[in-house]
């Protein structure tokens, strides 16, 4: 009884803080602790609801949920029972075919009536079925995250003036609505992640973020054109490809290159696609530079290797005069690896290289990640950097494939003439967790 009394004497803000750290179903059950806890959960300011199997029991929440309704109806009833404003609302659901669109709209209206919503996260795990939603005027909204929905902006939409973070993943939207959403969200500062799909016409996206620091953009079949109007504060950019069924490689290369060159002022750039392959299909701009770039990561599929990719690789290095860290992800399989990688590395090692300012004065770290490849497939690439990077401190090769590091490979690396006396080579086996340091 004394324990119950001590619990009852806790200040209200502490009780709410405790409840906020529990799963919602456990927070509801605290009504049985003591009289002072009864229905206290209805003051919860933050809800994270996940339609996992454990939520499906009819009596999961005791008498409050003793009637036989669908899971979404329970969510609506739960939100309608809350007495205070809902600041953060996260909904992770899977069975979209069981969701009535009217229930989802009713849920959004309830959140609007509660007032004060700052974070909205609706995540649908069934990518084959998107619910159509129209966002009401959440004037206090700071974070908006939507996944696998069809977003339609309401008539007279004026934007979210306080929005700092935007994430639209696998989200269907029209060109007019995405450009209106971008144009009216002038306070986006933290990050924007856009993976957009079109319900009908191809998308033409105009990016303008005066305060944004981090951008991730996924190029899909639906993207016809991307224009970077303004992003003066952008520091990090990540550009990827996904669901490319109808694009011709040349068209995709043009769209991709246009977006990559428009983020030239970033300090960190990740190219989550087979960069050299697509860049080899287009005319690359002469004397183009990334004057602030310090970090670059790009993917390279060895099954698509050809000699044209050499020029794209040279263009990348020459366009980044102050690059300090370089990460290359080599992808392929054990059946085609060595010969395909050699197509590029033979070109690199056979020709004299001039004009690589980054290799002369700034590249200090190179990491090569091997997916589905044996570590021997990276030796030509390693040779190139050891022979050309004058201030290199560390070259690290990470691989996942089975197979021992052969002594002959280490001997081959040790025989190389290196230009940086401080350089060391580390080979890391992700399967065993073992590091092998090669003494040069």
UniProtKB/TrEMBL annotation:
Domain F-box/LRR-repeat protein 15/At3g58940/PEG3-like LRR spans what residues?
110-328
State the InterPro entries in the record. F-box-like_dom_sf, F-box_dom, FBL13/AtMIF1-like, LRR_FXL15/At3g58940/PEG3-like
Q: Per its UniProt record, what Pfam families does this chain match?
A: F-box (PF00646), LRR_At5g56370 (PF24758)
Residue span(s) of domain F-box: 7-47
Superkingdom of origin organism: Eukaryota
This chain's protein is named F-box domain-containing protein
């Amino acid at each position: 009884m004394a324990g119950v009394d001590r619990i009852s004497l806790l200040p209200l803000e502490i009780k709410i803080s405790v409840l906020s750290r529990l799963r919602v179903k456990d927070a509801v059950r605290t009504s049985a602790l003591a009289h002072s806890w009864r229905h206290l959960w209805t003051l919860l300011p933050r809800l994270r609801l996940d339609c996992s199997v454990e939520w499906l029991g009819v009596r999961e929440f005791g008498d409050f949920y003793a009637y036989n309704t669908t899971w979404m109806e329970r969510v609506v009833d739960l939100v309608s029972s809350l007495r205070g404003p809902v600041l953060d609302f996260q909904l992770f659901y899977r069975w979209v075919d069981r969701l009535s669109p009217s229930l989802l709209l009713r849920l959004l209206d309830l959140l609007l009536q509660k007032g004060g919503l700052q974070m909205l996260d609706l995540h649908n795990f069934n990518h084959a079925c998107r619910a159509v939603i129209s966002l009401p005027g959440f004037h206090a909204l700071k974070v908006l995250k939507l996944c696998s929905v069809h977003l339609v902006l309401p008539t007279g939409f004026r934007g979210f003036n306080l929005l700092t973070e935007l994430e639209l993943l696998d989200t269907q939207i029209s060109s007019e609505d995405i450009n209106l959403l971008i144009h009216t969200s002038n306070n986006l500062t933290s990050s924007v992640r856009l993976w957009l799909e079109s319900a009908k016409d191809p998308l033409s996206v105009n990016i303008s973020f005066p305060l944004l620091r981090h951008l991730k953009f996924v190029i899909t079949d639906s993207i016809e054109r991307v224009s970077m109007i303004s992003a003066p504060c952008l520091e990090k950019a990540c550009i990827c490809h996904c669901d490319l069924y109808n694009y011709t490689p040349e068209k995709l290369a043009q769209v991709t290159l246009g977006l990559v060159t428009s983020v030239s002022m970033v300090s960190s750039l990740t190219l989550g696609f087979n960069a050299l392959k697509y860049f080899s299909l287009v005319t690359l701009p002469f004397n183009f530079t990334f004057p602030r770039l310090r970090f670059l990561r790009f993917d390279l599929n060895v099954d698509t290797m050809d000699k044209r990719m050499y020029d794209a690789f040279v263009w990348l290095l020459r366009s980044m005069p102050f690059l300090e860290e370089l990460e290359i992800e080599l992808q392929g399989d054990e059946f085609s690896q060595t010969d395909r990688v050699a197509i590029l590395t033979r070109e690199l090692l056979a020709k004299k290289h001039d004009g690589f300012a980054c290799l002369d004065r700034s590249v200090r770290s190179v990491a090569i990640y091997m997916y589905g490849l044996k570590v021997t497939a990276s030796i030509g690439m390693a040779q190139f950097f050891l022979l050309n990077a004058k201030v290199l401190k560390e070259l690290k090769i990470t691989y996942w494939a089975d197979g021992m590091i052969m002594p002959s490979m280490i001997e081959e690396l040790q025989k190389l003439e290196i230009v940086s006396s401080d350089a060391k080579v580390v080979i890391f086996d992700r399967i065993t967790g073992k590091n092998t340091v090669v003494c040069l």
